[in-house]
Design goal:
The protein is of the alpha/beta class and 212 residues long. It has 7 helices and 9 strands, in the order αββββαβαββαβαβαα. A hairpin with a 2-residue loop joins strand 3 and strand 4. 44% of the residues are buried. It binds zinc ion. The site of zinc ion (ZN) has 4 residues, from strand 6.
Length: 212
């Protein structure tokens, strides 16, 4: 797995994190599966008229889930000095997925590894998927927080999709740096197995069953 992750991440690391500048499109979409993993910050993006640093490792994680597992993916593969939002891409390309997992990187925190954000919608509305996510966090010993103000996901893909479609079918997951380190062990032992199980459980609609 380490070799593949290194290989995938190399594409996003090029040009000092601006990615593959000769790519035809800003986003690469691999379609056809019901659950779609997204890495909108795999390379640098343009926010408030400034170049914003990428979420290291998120591109490699999502590529792995698309190429080695059975999930759809959308990754940003090049920097452009204008707003090119992934939500617009999804809406104009009419991406059909039953659920989107919006993968990001947060800074390190002492007491948690993963920030889960339900965007504009309440925890109650996400009860089923949250129950499943928390169960898997306990299994993989991932310390999580839900809806911390700075990691709720209102600004970005999760919030924008919710506002446009009115559906609670997108969840933001922000991982701490060591959970995205492609040279480390945590990404192989925790981050990726956790995401595979979460994605598979959504496919099997276990998050729906848990709402009783
Ligand atoms: Zn991000």
């Amino acid at each position: 797995m380490k070799k593949l992750l290194k290989q995938y991440e190399a594409d996003f690391m090029q040009n000092k994190g601006q990615g593959c500048l000769t790519a035809k499109t800003v986003y690469t979409y691999s379609k056809g599966k019901p659950v779609c993993f997204c890495a909108p910050h795999a390379v640098h993006s343009f926010v408030h008229k400034q170049e914003r640093s990428r979420d290291i490792g998120t591109g490699a994680i999502v590529q792995y889930l698309g190429k080695q597992q059975t999930f759809s993916t959308i990754v940003r593969n090049k920097f452009v000095p204008c707003k090119e939002m992934i939500s617009d891409f999804i809406l104009t390309k009419k991406v059909s997925a039953s659920f989107f997992l919006d993968i990001h990187g947060m800074r390190a925190h002492k007491d948690f590894d993963l920030a889960i954000g339900t965007g504009y919608f309440s925890k109650k509305k996400y009860n089923a998927i949250l129950t499943q996510t928390k169960k898997l966090c306990r299994k993989y010993k991932i310390r999580y927080r839900v809806n911390l103000p700075q990691y709720m996901g209102k600004i970005g893909l999760t919030g924008r999709l919710q506002k446009t479609t009115g559906k609670a079918n997108v969840l933001q997951l922000e991982f701490a740096p060591e959970f995205r380190d492609i040279t480390g062990q945590i990404i192989q032992d925790k981050t990726i197995p956790f995401l595979i199980e979460l994605g598979e459980s959504i496919k099997r609609k276990e998050h729906v069953k848990t709402t009783a």
